[in-house]
């Protein structure tokens, strides 16, 4: 009996497991699908949506799309900082030297100029009865300016006058350089605005602003070039002076020449006096009239 009971229990357990499997298989497809979706949602989670990043547009881009360009409202930029600018010193000088021979002194000057890498910018010669004058405007590298002055003072002649001046233009040069750099930044921004301009009016206004900036940039660059030229090459105004020594043998200033000059001057004075009297002829016409009236008045009074 016991031997039959044990197999019967095992058979009942196996039939119960098969029934549960059949129930699951025979369940509705919709329920099974919902369970599958639920499992899938649980196992695979969708990645979070990326966060949107908002960034403020530059003021220039807003203005060029939303409203007409205002010429007075320039793009906002930070002032550009320049590297430290070296000292800018302009040296100028004036010298007047008395020499014994203009030609010889001129040759000495040319030798001195070659040694100091200088050159003559302008030259003017004047010959009078009393003296000879050779005026030179000399440009010399800044570093050779003092050596050039000393060479002229020592070996050419007697220095009658000398005036040396130095002008520090570092502040002006720095100011112009900073303004120039900022204007170049402005003009690039305006060119970007021109490429994205949407109306003809905006394009015309931006082009006019660019033209004005280009003119200002040209002026600033020209000023910087002028300062650099004056700094790199100093200017010296040199005057070579020779006084003429006059004698009776060479210049005919003896007694005879002076006597002839006196006669000539006397004759010229007489002619000037005579011509002066002749120039008064309208007043001379009044003299006969005055005499006639005076006599008539006198005769009438006597009667």
From TrEMBL:
Statement: the UniProt record of this protein carries the keyword rRNA-binding: no
Signal peptide: 1-19
Highest taxon of the lineage: Bacteria
Name of one Pfam family that matches: DUF4349
Transmembrane segments: 270-294
Keyword Signal: yes
Occurrences of domain DUF4349 (ranges): 87-295
Sections of the chain in a coiled coil: 196-230
Keywords: Coiled coil, Membrane, Signal, Transmembrane, Transmembrane helix
Designated name of the protein: DUF4349 domain-containing protein
Organism from which the protein derives: Chryseobacterium elymi
